[in-house]
Amino acid sequence: MVEIPAQPFSFNANKSQLALIVIDMQRDFAEPGGFGASLGNDVSRITKIVPDVKRLISGFRSAGLPVIHTMECHRPDLSDLPPAKRDRGSPAIRIGELGPMGRVLVAGEPGTAILPELAPVDGEIVIEKPGKGAFYATPLGDILQAKGITQLIFAGVTTEVCVQTTMREANDRGYECLLAEEATESYFPEFKKAAIDMIRAQGAIVGWSAHVDDILKGLTDA
Ligand code: TIU
Known about the structure:
Helix content: 25-40%
Radius of gyration: 17 Å
Strand order of the largest sheet: 7-4-3-8-9-10
Largest sheet: 6 strands, parallel
Bound molecules: tricarbonodiimidic diamide
Strand content: 15-25%
Number of strands: 10
Distance between the termini: 7 Å
């Protein structure tokens, strides 16, 4: 057991039960012409966290701990895309339509890929998810249970959408969840701050937050 300095109080990490979950670090959320941009967002904020996400991934790999990647995407026949999701709002390009990086948010298309700097290596688990949360309609829960994982460190985008949704799903399933502050980002800085605040309020009602440096130090101390 190692104590990681965190908010609202220290996180007691147990190396044998710990995994990193990197949420949706895909070109579709980080590059012009992708899904994030189609919704009218300034996507340049997302690429700024790549070095911190990379550091975190490297630390987990060096410690021999599991790194799990998620990708928000849909089957090519769109059978897992509810009309309510497809038809919401007025994006420049809808999910499944052809954009400059292929069909938006469709599995196997160039834009759906994880950013090359953060790409999974052989043996790492990649979860394709049709929703914002990584537990909904995926094998993630069964995989974590089979590995005996009970504590999850979170990185990725966007803080208040897919990261927070997955942390809430995980919290309800009994996992202890910690968010790496420099390794997550939103298109809206005020939403990143609010999401972190609400996750750790009320005595860590959803989970903890911590700095990447403190998490990495914990991994080497553990
Ligand atoms: N739009 C937005 O902020 N996020 C998403 O649609 N997906 C994820 O957060 N991955």
